[in-house]
Amino acid sequence: xxxxxxxxxxxxxxxxxxxxxxxxxxxxxxxxxxxxxxxxxxxxxxxxxxxxxxxxxxxxxxxxxxxxxxxxxxxxxxxxxxxxxxxxxxxxxxxxxxxxxxxxxxxxxxxxxxxxxxxxxxxxxxxxxxxxxxxxxxxxxxxxxxxxxxxxxxxxxxxxxxxxxxxxxxxxxxxxxxxxxxxxxxxxxxxxxxxxxxxxxxxxxxxxxxxxxxxxxxxxxxxxxxxxxxxxxxxxxxxxxxxxxxxxxxxxxxxxxxxxxxxxxxxxxxxxxxxxxxxxxxx
Length: 283
What we know:
This protein is of the alpha/beta class and 283 residues long. Helices cover 39% and strands 20% of the residues.
């Protein structure tokens, strides 16, 4: 059964600047916060199907992180510490303490970082999560590209205005052809300022020596129940990251999704929603 989801706004102070944040919320019960990934993403993209489905059991919250969706997109540096500060400020502003947090890709790293920084969490759902490994096969080429502004501009100049370019980007992250609905969802929220935020974050994270954010050696510090979900054909972050994390986390469960790429909530929505519902219910 699906529940109605509303749009809300809240003003935050993040890293000394005011930023207006749009978020989607609904339902009733214990809080469940959803954090999307960087770039071709927003609350209405990754979590389109999850929010109404899971609002029957939880009060759900899904912010558009700064630089994304309907939130402010300031001309500033975008880094993982900045986004961690934004997550903390958001939770404080909506007066949510000890939520369950589900994070996809960069959002997974933010969920992890928030918990490891001392934030209270009931449980974690890490979906194709960034922050679980130090390198990937494509990072060497990407780091050189993103450290070279001219080349980076050439790669991304068409993404914000061209549906074919969006489709190509999504095709590179999924196991199957992206449906038209997903392409339309991304096209409706991504603009050149979103691409700017993505490229600045990538420039900060994709170093010549590897990824800047890697929590693999700190996973033993986590005590919250953790569900790791990973598409077995994810071309960005290898499933071995989640396998290794499951072996290090003291209270974890691993679900590898067959014939699935980087976005299980959109590629396998019914399975994803039921799996997260069961986990959040403690079953």
